[in-house]
Each structure stands twice: as structure tokens, then as C-alpha cells.
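User: quick one - fold this with NAP bound?
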Amino acid sequence: MEPKSLAGRVAVVTGGSRGLGKAIALSLGSAGASLALVARDMAALNAAAVAQGKAGAEVAAFSADATDERQVARLQGDILARFNHVDILVNNAGMNIRKPVVEFSLAEWNTVLATNLTSAFLMCRALVPQMKGRGYGRIVNLTSIMSHISMPGRAAYSASKAGLLGFTKALALELAGDGITVVAVSPGPFATEMNTALIEDPELNRYFTSRIPIGRWGNAAEIGQLVLYLCSSEAGFVTGTDILVDGGWTAQ
Ligand SMILES: NC(=O)c1ccc[n+]([C@@H]2O[C@H](COP(=O)([O-])OP(=O)(O)OC[C@H]3O[C@@H](n4cnc5c(N)ncnc54)[C@H](OP(=O)(O)O)[C@@H]3O)[C@@H](O)[C@H]2O)c1
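Assistant: Sure. C-alpha cells for the protein plus NAP:
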């Protein structure tokens, strides 16, 4: 890939304030893409935007709840007013509630589904129409190993992530003739805020590390570099599928 292979491209990254989204934005920005970072907490977003700016990217922060139809409509207008067009959409915003099915309230279930699945629908519905007609487009959805396998306590998360993989496949087929690829990235355990409770509990940390054949948690930069490749012109034939990045977990 050329060093500034994404120069002139505009990338929207939901959940771009921390964790995997921040690393993805850093990789895309380092390749020359302009960045629209989206999350709810404006202070965290601003801090991330400053860091991306120091790394040389043109960047703007947009506070929005990606599960809210009206806020996503406003976000669409704000991003297009600032950048004029969008080439890359990374649907990375996500969350997890871990507990047995019978202990879930309907509100908790709906929150997980809305954050991990409905947000991607709303963002794609808002941005895909103007992504068409440019001969290039990339949509990357953050799915999970839990799109394929599961564990006790992960019913809502697995349901949302398996749904997002199905969504990825269907949208890839809808957009295959437009030069827009739709791909999912399915991480195994990565050391981000989402997993703080698991990382800080010595027993759980040992358990998770023992389940990963590579023997360690993933580093966010390892996802960033993969997403950069998926957004390159060289990846134009990769669509309607996911790439597992799990240290070998699902090979067992
Ligand atoms: N870490 C892992 O091991 C792992 C494994 C498999 C898949 N994944 C997936 O990878 C993605 C990123 O995970 P992560 O570990 O980086 O998570 P994280 O550190 O918890 O970050 C989540 C990001 O999403 C944003 N977000 C959450 N709800 C949102 C909403 N309703 N609207 C807009 N933004 C929202 C958060 O910002 P605000 O709270 O300020 O909105 C934050 O920027 C998620 O989809 C996750 O399911 C992660």
C-alpha cells in the first residue's frame, strides 16, 4: 500500500473516542484519510481528536448516540456539511451486558441490540445513499468471535453480533455493483475498556488468556492495521464476509 493511500478519503468511525475505534481511526488517519469521530461523550471525543490531529490527520469530533434515529439524521447533515462526502464508514460503537438470559430486563436486551446492531443499520441508511456513485466505498462492521461461537452470559451480545454479521452479508450483496465493499471484523478478546472487568479480575484474566492459543490479549493496533487493509483499493474483492482476529480462539 502507498503510505498515504487514503489521501482525499473521508472516514466516519463510530466509537472513535477509545479502544478499537480509536486505533482504527489512527490507522486510517495515518494513511491520509480525514476522520469524523462519533461517540456520545464529547470530552473523550475531543481528547481523541486532539491525539489524531497530533498524528497528522484532519479530524472532527461529532457527539451523537448512534442508536437514536434523529441524532443520526442530524449527524449525517453535520458530517456532510463538514467534509462534503463520506467514503469509509466503520460501525464500531458497541457495548456488552454479561448475565444469564433470565436476569436480563427487556430494556437491557434492547440496549445491547440497539447499540451493536441497530446503530449500524441507522448509520448505513443515513450515509450509503451519498456513498454511491463514487466508484469506491468501504463499510467495516465490528462483529466478534461471538458472531460465531458463544459463552454463558453472552446471549444478547451474541445475538447482536450474529445479527450484525447477517446484516453485513445482505448489505454487501445490495452494494456489490456500486464499488462499495461491506466487510466485518470479528475480534477475539482485546484489552480495551469494554473488558476492564475481565482484565482486572485475576481469575477471569487467567481463564481468558488460557483460552487464547497465542497466549495474550489482542492489541488494538492489530485491528487498526487490518481495517486499513480492508479500506485499501487492494481489498476491493473482499466483501460479504468477516475476518476473525482472535489469536486462534475459534480454531479450537
Ligand atoms: N474489545 C474486545 O475484546 C472486542 C471483541 C470483539 C468485538 N468487539 C467490538 O469492537 C467494538 C469496539 O469495542 P471496544 O472494546 O473498543 O469498546 P469500548 O472501549 O467500550 O468503546 C466503545 C466505543 O463505542 C462508543 N459508543 C458506545 N455506545 C454508543 C452509542 N450508542 N452511540 C455512539 N457511540 C457509542 C463509546 O463511546 P461513548 O460511550 O462516549 O458513546 C466508545 O467510543 C465494539 O463493537 C465491540 O463489540 C470488541
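One thing worth noting: The first strand starts at residue 10 and ends at 14.
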